[in-house]
Amino acid sequence: MIVISHRGASGYAPENTLPAFEKALQMGAKAFEFDVQRSKDGKLIVHHDYDFSRTAKDKRKIAQLDYKEIEKINAAAHFKGANFAKVPLLSEVLDLIKDKSEFINLEIKNDGNIYPNIEADILKESEKFPSLKEKIIISSFYFPSLEKTRILSSSARLAYLGHKLSAILIAPAVLKAKKINCENFHLSRKISFSANLKLIKSFGFKVCVYTVNERKEAEKLEEIGVYGIFSNYPDIMNKNG
Ligand code: G3P
Ligand code: MG
C-alpha cells in the first residue's frame, strides 16, 4: 500500500506549501497529493480552500486575486510555530517533487466550474514536465472537470473522487468513473468498508482512501486491499498508536 502525502506532509508543516512538500521529501515520500486552483490573472496555484479564511484569516477569494497579491499571503499563518510560507505555484510544487515522485495526485478544485477551462491549463502545465507524464493522476470532486479532462486528453490518468458518497451511491459512481476511463477510485475513509472496496475493485479500479491519520486504521485498510492512503503523516506506518 502506498502512503500519499496529503497536501504534503501537512501534519508536520503547513499544508500545500513548499515546506510541506520539502518535509515530505525529507521523510522519503514518493507519493504526493495537492489541490489546484487558479488566480484571477490565470496562474495555477496550490491551495485547498477557495479563500484564505482558514489558512490565513483573510477572506479574499483566490479567483478574485492576481498572483502578486496571493503570494504575499501567509499560507502558514494557521500552523503553530511555522515561518511565513507563500501559496506556491503549481509549477513550483511540480519542480520540487519531480525527481523523487512515483505518484502525484493532482486534485482540481473547481466546484460549480468556478475556474472555466482550468482543465486545459492544467494539462498544458503538466506537459512542461514530461518526466511526470506517467506519474500524474488527476482527480476532482467536480465530475464535469474529469469529463472535460478526458475530452481534452485520451491519455490523461484519472481518478474518480467520491464526494459525500454514501454506500448506496457507490455502484452508480463506479459506472460514471468507468465511462470516462478512470483507473483509480478515491473514497472517504468513512465508507471504506470491505464490501464497498470489493465492489469497486471488481470493476478493476485501484482504491485510495482519504484521509487516514491513524496507524491502526491504515493497517486495516492495507489488509483489506486498499492501494493507497492519503495521510498527513508520510511516516504513518511507523507511528505509534
Ligand atoms: O484527494 C483526496 C483528498 O484530498 C480529498 O479531500 O478535501 O482533502 O481535498 P480534500
Ligand atoms: Mg485534496
What structural keywords apply?
single chain, 241 residues, alpha/beta, TIM Barrel, eight-stranded parallel β-barrel, 9 helices, binds SN-glycerol-3-phosphate, binds magnesium ion
Question: What would your notes on this structure say?
Answer:
With 241 residues, the chain is an alpha/beta fold. It has a single domain, classed as Alpha-Beta Barrel (TIM Barrel). The chain has 9 helices and 11 strands. It has an 8-stranded parallel barrel, surrounded by 5 helices. A two-stranded antiparallel sheet has the order 4-5. Strand 2 and strand 3 form a beta hairpin. The chain is globular and about 45 Å long. The structure holds SN-glycerol-3-phosphate and magnesium ion. The site of SN-glycerol-3-phosphate (G3P) has 12 residues, from strand 2 and strand 6. Residues 33, 35, 107 line the site of magnesium ion.
